[in-house]
Structure formats: structure tokens, C-alpha cells
Amino acid sequence: MTLYRDEGVVLRTQKLGEADRIVTILTRRHGRIRAAAKGVRKTKSRFGARLEPFSHVDLQLYERRSLDLVTQAETLRPYGQTLATDYPRYTAGTAMLETAERLTSEEGEPALRQFLLLVGGLRTLVEGDHDPRLVLDAFLLRSLSVAGWAPAIDECCRCGDRGGLRGFMIAAGGAVCARCRQPGAATPAPPTFALMLALLRGDWVHADGSDPRHRIECSGLVAAYLQWHLEHGIRSLRHVERGTGDTSDRERV
Ligand SMILES: [Zn+2]
């Protein structure tokens, strides 16, 4: 057995037997991992509440053939304690954890930029200086960008024109100009495009000064765009796996 250390944010926990848990953690160096924590559900657990969702922890683990085993956990930042008392911030944080898990599709694949985005996003959320919806949308836009799915915001995703943007077409890749816009495409207000760009770039002065109706419009577009890419992205990943590994599928092609 090999012992290793890492730090990570707890994304999710599941019951394992009577007293144990499987903990899903996004780590700094090992990407997303799942590990077993023994006795964590007993009242006198040596882990206490350290292995709860949102916790940023320093970990020691035993590498095993199946699930790695958590042997030590020290709290670095207990984000969950603050978030639990504030419903809007808690729901925004929950969406961040879920998105971080979905966007790190391969277990054990290093995902340093996604880890840093999550830690930064949770810290900003806990500090409470910005509307939680803006913090969430900034996190989602940047996470999409890290995953290689950044939407076009300041240019037409079809012809590349930078002026006269009139619509937003999710399947096409983002903003479209008046000529490329197809019937049925969303038509966001120009300040909504400006807000999306500010969030992607981390321009909080602009984002904090935005109008509530543009925040609502921005959130709707970002959520729809993320949803579309998660569904289609995961489907395309399955194609990649099929093409490289399984011979029975290769015969079919
Ligand atoms: Zn165009």
C-alpha cells in the first residue's frame, strides 16, 4: 500500500455500510477521486464533520486496488459552516460542486484549473461581497472555458463579426449577429452580453453594477448553455471511449 497526501474540496458523500462513507473529492493534484472514510458516521468519529460537502481539507490517503482509504483529514477552510446558514449562497455553492463533478469526467485525471476555480468560487461566495448568482455564473462561465466550451460572447460564433450581435444560439456556440441569427434564437439585451463578458473576465466592478433583469437573463442563458454542453459533451466523450477501447464496438464501425 502506498500513502499519499493531497488537498481537496469534498463534493459529495454516499453511505457505505453501517458507519462508513464514500467521499468524492476534487483534489489539487489527483483530480477528482472517490475514497472510503471509515467510521465517519459514528458520533465519535475521528474525522468529525471534516469530510462534509464544501469542506476544503488536507488529506492523507492509502492507495488501494479498489477505493483509496482516507487515513487523515485536517480542515483548511470549513466553507460548509458559513454556507449552511444562507440559502441563496448554499444553493449557488451546491450548483458549483455538482458542476465541478460533472466537468471532471475522468476520475484521477489532474484538473488543477478546475480545482482552483472551485476553491476561488467558494471563497468568494463565503466572503459575501457579491450577489451569489453572479458568483455562480462567473464560476460556470470560467469552468466551461476551462473545459474548452467557452461560449462566444463578444463575437458572432458563426461568422466572427464583432459588431451587431443580436442573438444567442446555444447549439451554435453562443452569440450570433443579425445576419447569422436563426428564428427562435434568444435575443438577450446588449447589457446582458456585457455582463457575461465581465463575469468571464472577473470584472467585478462592472458585474456588481449590473441591473437585476440582466442578471436574470444572464443566469438563464448560462444555465441553458451549461446544460446543453453537459448532455452533449458527455455523449461525445462516450464516442471517444468507444473508438479507442472496446473491440466489439469497433467492428460495428
Ligand atoms: Zn454572424
TrEMBL record:
Task: Write the protein's name.
Answer: DNA repair protein RecO
Q: Name one GO cellular component term.
A: bacterial nucleoid
Instruction: Identify the PANTHER family for this entry.
Output: DNA REPAIR PROTEIN RECO
Q: What NCBIfam families has UniProt attached to this entry?
A: reco
What is any one GO biological process for this UniProt entry?
A: DNA recombination
Hey, which family's this protein in?
Belongs to the RecO family.
Sorted alphabetically, the keyword list is:
DNA damage, DNA recombination, DNA repair
Gene3D superfamilies, per this entry?
Nucleic acid-binding proteins, Recombination protein O, C-terminal domain
> InterPro entries per the record?
ARFGAP/RecO, DNA_rep/recomb_RecO_N, NA-bd_OB-fold, RecO, RecO_C
From which organism does this entry originate? Actinomadura macrotermitis
Presence of keyword DNA repair: yes
Domain DNA replication/recombination mediator RecO N-terminal residues, every copy: 1-79
Q: Which SUPFAM superfamilies match?
A: ArfGap/RecO-like zinc finger, Nucleic acid-binding proteins
Function, please? Involved in DNA repair and RecF pathway recombination.
Recite the lineage of the species: Bacteria, Bacillati, Actinomycetota, Actinomycetes, Streptosporangiales
Pfam families attached to this UniProt entry: RecO_C, RecO_N
